[in-house]
Write a structure and sequence with these properties.
The complex is a heterodimer.
Chain A: H1 4-21, H2 26-49, E1 54-57, E2 68-71, H3 73-96, H4 99-121, H5 125-143, H6 149-180, H7 185-191, H8 196-213, H9 222-228, H10 231-257, H11 263-286, H12 290-314, H13 317-352, H14 361-366, H15 368-382, H16 388-402, H17 409-427, H18 456-475, H19 479-483
Antiparallel strand pairs in A: 1-2
Helix pairs in contact in A: 1-2, 1-4, 2-3, 2-4, 3-4, 3-10, 3-13, 3-18, 4-5, 4-10, 5-6, 5-10, 6-8, 6-9, 7-10, 8-10, 9-10, 9-12, 10-12, 10-13, 11-12, 11-17, 12-13, 12-17, 13-15, 13-16, 13-18, 15-17, 15-18, 16-18
Chain B: H1 7-23, H2 30-56, E1 62-68, E2 71-76, H3 79-102, H4 109-128, H5 132-150, H6 156-187, H7 206-224, H8 232-235, H9 241-249, H10 252-268, H11 270-275, H12 278-298, H13 303-323, H14 327-358, H15 369-372, H16 374-388, H17 394-409, H18 412-438, H19 459-477, H20 485-497
Antiparallel strand pairs in B: 1-2
Helix pairs in contact in B: 1-2, 1-4, 2-3, 3-4, 3-9, 3-14, 3-19, 4-5, 5-6, 5-10, 6-7, 7-10, 9-14, 10-13, 12-13, 12-18, 13-14, 14-16, 14-17, 14-19, 14-20, 16-18, 16-19, 17-18, 17-19
């Protein structure tokens, strides 16, 4: 039998090595690696969906010694989403990067991809640390790809914050190992009992991850880093890398700490989530540049994800499944929508030579497919039907009220309204026909960039992604809940 | 042809699919776009005809899609939804013809007709919605599909109007969502049930039910333009005439009013709503809106603005009908859903014709317009008389039943509201009619786009108002005929009250 789990991690690594050795052919190797990796990930998803629990011990060394990979419904769903999004980003990147940055992009990108898949599939706490570290380093390097001083500065900060986060996490892991003598998630979960050790470990591990997941008020590093990166990289950072840190928190919560934490920690996460929703949406509304807007919108959307924790903590076992499905749906929808938004922003930036929202009118009107993609991404970010976000928000609201925790509802509603405000601030450009859009000069008197031809494929990619976020995940998401049915390996 | 369980979905798709295809069309593929538009509209009409027959026979039609555990997207047809679907479908066909004529040679036609079709799909979807979740989904989709239509012209006014529209409707949508999710948490999936889904819950959770009702009412009241949530409607007048016509007669405003009817009858049920004291609040709100809208309409010189305030007032008759207990008032309110639609769309078509043919936008410019454009003005006259409630035009029938129902229920003060409002209606419509027919035309019109020929204006602009005016007359004249809106409203009232 083919070990799809190992392939999903090994193929992008091989691709990265290939792209380094043959820099002239990096795009071809990269694309081949992307297609093969995605196929492996899809196979994992398919097998899990059919009810096969996947677990593989590399090199025949079982726990607690070797490297173990495993996939259940939660990780398989995120893995499939991440790989489809990454494949779209790869296709888009073929067109995006010039000859200069190409040879740096592909190896780093495939390395990031390997780390991402490894993180979703890792079954023990130390490997999770390794993949987390690798992910952070390759992400920061990709973010600084343009070499512009502000990009390097922002991403250096990103790197340091990421290191601090993963070090804190590692400290927690070390403490856990010292106390329990195992790093395997399942074994540790069985051995962990409530007490000072569990609480300290929890605080260290989750605290470090919150920094990486950019949960308010630990989000300060995210907007500049995501806004300064090249568009395909921003898409990957916002849609996937942040999501990986969130996945880890959720995984640890469900598998490891669920039994040893009380409501207080969950309430704190929910409160921070509310803060993120309101503050992130507000800053997105005030942002002058499209990519900065998209980055702050990520801060807000991460907040929604954390709002589910207090509900999960209180919910009876029957409702847990519903809530897990909803938070998963939210994460998947945001992955497709946010990546689509960043890729669209990249196209507008190419066409207009800038991404100042107030002056985007002519380029957005010249690219109707991109305008449509931004509109669809907006629908998903606001949480309007028929997007997946709408379903998730409905579940969030009705279970918050149903479980008597109605105080989470106003934040959700306020965030929704602010999100509509920032989305339609961009979309109004698609309709506006003011005098200032008539001339070649934009508002600041700079000569607008010479018309850049934007390939049809590059336009189709974000449109496809946002369509998935809105139509597919909104109307056909029911299998997600089946996927989450218990099938422990 | 189509199995029963797919028919409601097919009715939504007959405009959704053409709409999506139109987006992909070139600006210049005029023939293909028109074919798609009309084919969709005619196909929808045929399917709706079949649906009417089936519902009359008592068959059930239900399309269902599972979205998540416990959350279903349900489209089904009961008597009330059939009434609204029929109205939307007939008026969509007419408005499409009108819009094709109106937008001749203007830019962004593919975008316009794409969103136009989406707008109708959303309206039909919410008409057929079988539960509150589905209703909310299409209600929000309607907001989204209408925004580009209001912003269509792209002028600063249009962008501003669209922004105001969006601010109001999305805020309303958020309240509606909150109320709906709350109700879902309290009572499980909220299926629309004749007689009221919550009927059994009397005495439990009363405070919560009252709060939920007001959340829902606030959300729906924004679109239904209940005072003080009506501020967006006059501003949205910057939209092209076919959009205003559709907005006021079928789509947005009517969606709000329809939602209120649904919530009162099929969610709460009249008995529960009355015992919680909700109906008297609704009655007061509706009455205030009726009087306030009419008073504001008196002082408007812009023709479309005057019509807009008239809509604010007239749509609340529907809510008023829902707020009075008793089958007769129910008939009056429900039938006004149709009557107001036909009459108001006529008036907006005519206003568009005056603007497109002669450049006349203001009431003060309408002197003698009846001589230059007799057919349009005749249609306008029918619509205006109907709004005032002069027999035999349809509006009379609605007001008659509302008055009768109010007297029957012992709410005599409602009669006073009806009389006052009719006087005010006369006050703002008669001066227009007088100017148009009896004053001398000016030497030249503000901007004469279409020269006087055999027809007073382009044919696709002329026929729609004439047709809808005839419909408004027929609905009044043949109110007792077996297929009239009135008969159907009686069927609805019988089923709601279990008579």
């Amino acid at each position: 039998m083919i070990d799809w789990l190992a392939l999903a991690v090994a193929l992008p690594l091989l691709g990265a090595v290939g792209a380094v050795m043959l820099p002239g052919r990096a795009p071809a190797i990269g694309l081949a690696g992307a297609v093969l990796t995605t196929s492996a990930a899809l196979s994992v998803g398919l097998l899990v969906a059919q009810g096969t629990a996947l677990r593989s011990d590399l090199g025949g060394w079982g726990a607690p010694l070797g490297i173990a990979l495993a996939a259940d419904g939660l990780s398989a769903a995120l893995l499939v989403m991440a790989n489809l999004v990454a494949l779209c980003i790869s296709v888009y990147a073929l067109d995006y990067f010039g000859a200069g940055s190409r040879r740096h992009f592909w190896p780093l990108w495939l390395l990031l991809w390997a780390a991402l898949n490894g993180l979703f599939l890792a079954a023990d706490l130390f490997n999770l640390y390794v993949t987390l570290e690798l992910l952070g380093i390759s992400a920061a390097a990709l973010g600084a790809l343009t070499g512009r001083p502000e990009a390097v500065g922002a991403n250096l900060r990103y790197l340091l914050v990421g290191l601090l986060g993963s070090m804190t996490y590692l400290l927690g892991v070390a403490l856990l190992y010292a106390g329990l003598g195992t790093l395997d998630l399942k074994l540790a979960a069985a051995a962990l009992t409530p007490g000072p050790l569990a609480w300290t470990v929890f605080a260290l591990m989750v605290g470090g991850l919150l920094l990486k997941a950019a949960l308010f008020p630990l989000h300060f590093w995210l907007p500049p880093a995501h806004a300064q990166a090249p568009a395909p990289v921003s898409a990957a950072l916002s849609a996937l890398v942040v999501k990986a840190a969130f996945y880890l928190v959720l995984r640890l919560w469900v598998d490891l700490f669920g039994a040893v934490t009380d409501g207080g920690a969950a309430t704190l996460l929910g409160a921070l989530g509310t803060g993120a929703v309101v503050w992130g949406s507000w800053r997105a509304f005030r942002a002058e540049r499209l990519k900065l807007l998209a980055a702050y919108s990520t801060v807000a959307q991460v907040g929604y994800l954390f709002l589910f924790f207090p509900l999960l903590a209180e919910a009876p076992a029957t409702q847990r499944q519903d809530l897990l499905g909803a938070v998963l749906l939210l994460a998947l929808t945001h992955g497709f929508a946010k990546a689509g938004l960043f890729l669209s922003a990249g196209l507008l930036q190419k066409a207009a030579g800038h991404d100042r929202i107030a002056d985007l009118g002519p380029s957005i009107q010249g690219l109707p497919a991109v305008a449509l993609a931004i509109g669809l991404a907006g629908v998903a970010l606001v949480g309007l039907p028929p997007s997946g976000t709408f379903i998730a928000k409905w579940v969030l609201l009705s279970s918050a009220i149903g479980s008597g925790q109605w105080w989470w509802a106003p934040g959700v509603v306020l965030g929704t309204l602010l999100a509509s405000a920032y989305v339609f601030r961009v979309l109004a450009n698609a309709f506006e026909r003011g005098p200032r859009h008539g001339s070649l000069h934009d508002a600041r008197g700079e000569l607008a960039a010479a018309p850049v031809s934007i390939g049809r494929l590059a336009q189709a990619v974000p449109l496809l992604m946002t369509l998935i976020a809105v139509a597919v995940l909104g109307l056909e998401a029911e299998p997600l809940w089946d996927l989450l049915q218990d099938r422990s390996p | 042809m189509i199995p029963d369980h797919l028919l409601p979905a097919a009715i939504v798709l007959t405009s959704l699919v053409p709409g999506l295809l139109i987006f992909a069309l070139d600006e210049e593929s005029h023939v293909l776009r028109t074919t798609l538009n009309l084919a969709g509209a005619v196909a929808k009409l045929a399917l709706v005809g079949w649906l009417i027959l089936g519902v009359y026979e008592g068959r059930t039609f239900e399309s269902r899609l599972n979205l998540a555990p416990g959350l279903d997207l349900v489209l089904n047809a009961d008597a009330l939804s059939v009434l609204f679907v029929t109205l939307s479908t007939v008026l969509w066909l007419v408005t499409t013809v009108y819009a094709i004529g109106y937008l001749e040679h203007s830019p962004h036609r593919s975008r316009f007709f794409g969103f136009f079709s989406l707008c109708v799909s959303a309206t039909v979807g919410l008409a057929l919605a079988g539960n509150l979740l589905t209703f909310v989904i299409f209600y929000e989709a309607l907001t989204l599909a209408t925004y580009p239509l209001v912003a269509h012209r792209g002028t600063p006014d249009a962008i501003q109007g669209a922004r105001v529209y969006l601010t109001y409707t999305l805020s309303g949508g958020a309240l509606l969502l909150t109320g709906a999710a709350w109700l879902h948490a309290l009572a499980g999936p909220v299926t629309f049930t004749q007689g009221g889904m919550l009927a059994g819950l009397e005495g439990q959770h009363d405070t919560q039910l009252v709060m939920i009702f007001f959340l829902l009412l606030a959300g729906l009241g924004v679109k239904a333009a209940l005072v003080p949530l009506h501020g967006w409607l006059p501003q949205a007048m910057v939209a092209p005439a076919p959009v205003s016509a559709l907005l006021h007669a079928v789509a947005v405003v009517k969606a709000g009013a329809f939602g209120i009817v649904r919530v009162v009858y099929d969610v709460y049920g009249v008995t529960l709503a009355e015992s919680l004291g909700l109906l008297s609040v609704l009655a007061v709100l509706a009455s205030v809106t009726i009087i306030y809208g009419s008073i504001r309409a008196l002082s408007q010189d812009g023709l479309k603005k005057r019509l807009a305030y008239s809509t604010v007032s007239q749509v609340s008759y529907i809510a008023l009908g829902a707020s009075i207990v008793g089958p007769i008032a129910t008939i009056g309110g429900v039938v006004h859903l149709v009557h107001q639609g036909i009459m108001k769309i006529t008036l907006f078509f005519c206003a568009g014709n005056y603007a497109e043919t002669l450049g006349v936008h203001r009431v003060s410019e309408m002197d003698g317009v009846g001589r230059r454009m007799p057919w349009t003005t005749l249609a306008f006259t029918v619509g205006a008389l109907g709004m005032i409630g002069v027999p035999p035009v349809a509006g009379f029938v609605s007001k008659w039943y509302l008055g009768l129902g109010a007297a029957d229920a012992g709410s005599d003060w409602v009669l006073l509201v009806l009389v006052t409002s009719s006087l005010l209606n006369a006050g703002y419509f008669f001066p227009i009619l007088f100017r148009a027919w009896f004053k001398d035309p000016p030497a030249s019109w503000p901007e004469e786009h279409v020269p006087a020929g055999r027809l007073e204006t382009a044919a696709p602009l002329l026929w729609p108002p004439v047709v809808t005016a005839l419909l408004a007359l027929a609905a009044g004249l043949f109110a007792a005929a077996p297929v009239s809106p009135l008969e159907w409203a009686e069927l609805i009232a019988r089923r709601e009250y279990g008579l």
